[in-house]
Amino acid sequence: MPTLNWIGKDAVVNHDKEVPFRLLKKEKFSSVGNSQNLVIHGDNLEALKALMPFYAGKVKCIYIDPPYNTGNEGWVYNDKVNSPKIRKWLGKVVGRDLEDLCRHDKWLCMMYPRVKLLKDLLSDDGAIFVSIDDVEQSNLRALLDDIFGEDNFITNVIWEKNYSPRNDAKYFSASHDFILIYAKSKSKWNRNLLLRTEKQNKYYKFDDNDGRGLWRPDNVLVKTFSESGVFGIKNPNTGETLYPPRGSCYRFSAERAKQLLVENKFYFGKDGMGKPQLKRYLSEVKQGVVPQTIWRYEEVGHNQTGKNELNKLVGMNVFDSPKPVSLIKHILQIATDKNDLVLDSFAGSGTTGHAVLDLNKEDSGDRKFILVEMEDSVAKDVTAQRIKRAIKQYDYKDGFEYCELSKPLFDEKGQIENTCSFDQFATYIYFTETQTNIDPAKVSGNYIGEYAETEYYLIYKEKSENVLSKLFLKMLRKTDGVKVIYADKCLLDDDTLEKHNIIFKQIPYEVKIY
Ligand SMILES: C[S@@+](CC[C@H](N)C(=O)[O-])C[C@H]1O[C@@H](n2cnc3c(N)ncnc32)[C@H](O)[C@@H]1O
To answer: What is the pTM of this model?
Structure first.
């Protein structure tokens, strides 16, 4: 398989492992109610890392709409991978090579470690949808092949984002964007059928009032020729025997045709004097529709739809290029069930959160969303504000918690940051030990969970010394399994540790860096 290479790749391929683990701090003031929905302000590289102990392998559907790298720096956000934050980050990670990087190299450097983290957050039966245009489409496809594997490529959808031509376009007026879709594991991913639309149902307008419901006339001929399909059908109204045209055949056998006649399933035209057609009943067709790869604006909205929706809620020109809610709902209909978790780590105006709430209202679902937005001027005043107003305006039942990225877990002296709570630390320890997420319902006192016949304990209180002493032995569960206990200090001798099957791990030195 051809491999993707660019200047700066070496510096970023494993960079996701070096990103410090940060704590999340909830801000009550900017939140709406208590909810598992999250809007996080911060660079998604750090935010995704912070989410990992809680959500690794749990996200069913990721939608991202990263900067397209069109070169537009005058937008509310920077579309050229040149915002001060990303420039600083690139300088730090890529170092001296930065000057040699072309704009595509920079974009790939920005995307690669972030998409790697996104893959880890996806559930085994989940999928990622990525919006892009011609500038980076080919690079994005190669990058996703590299990270997800080309076998997990599902399709490249065309979204008709404009319907009228722009006459000032130099060569062609762009009418579409792409949405690349990859599954984490293609064999485990199931797409939903889309609901039949009124437009699709409108041809089913005939009714015999015999309880069989609406039907439409359908072709009786089939393309592949078979001798057994050549016979005559007698029109009962005229007595005329009707054969298929020369070289073609009926799609059923003579035997079946007799049965269809008895069941009154042939239609011989308005006056009953014509050639046979088949009555295709609405109740017989699939109750859903297989999604297609071209998404027309009439179906899912266009650029201006997104702008109008945002204008209505937050005002004019607060954000460039918001996607239409109906576009994201279309994705959610294909890729989520009612209780799934949805993630958008380039959240912009928060369309994905809005779409989740709207679909939940429509189908009584309980999907949850996590949004991440980096720009200081966008996260609170546009992303969170838009969702807050949408909740009020459309009477959505759920809310969201607004979070800031807080300090790294390890401070500059390598100690555990002293604002870190027991729950946060336990979640981190459990994840680094087991690569799975803690079950808060199982946490009890210092016991934080069990995995592969090993029990985990954490002795930790902020700003105090945390000691494993004889007293603690009474708190251990009476089981034979290995017990891994994290604490600052251990006062037990080796024999006692062995007798109780204890492995002591000293905080902070033996806390794994994730
Ligand atoms: C194309 S816009 C997304 C628009 C969004 N789909 C909507 O409907 O409003 C891309 C967004 O990603 C944000 N962004 C860019 N780099 C980011 C990063 N490293 N972390 C988080 N957000 C980032 C930008 O600030 C911008 O708001």
So the answer is: 0.86
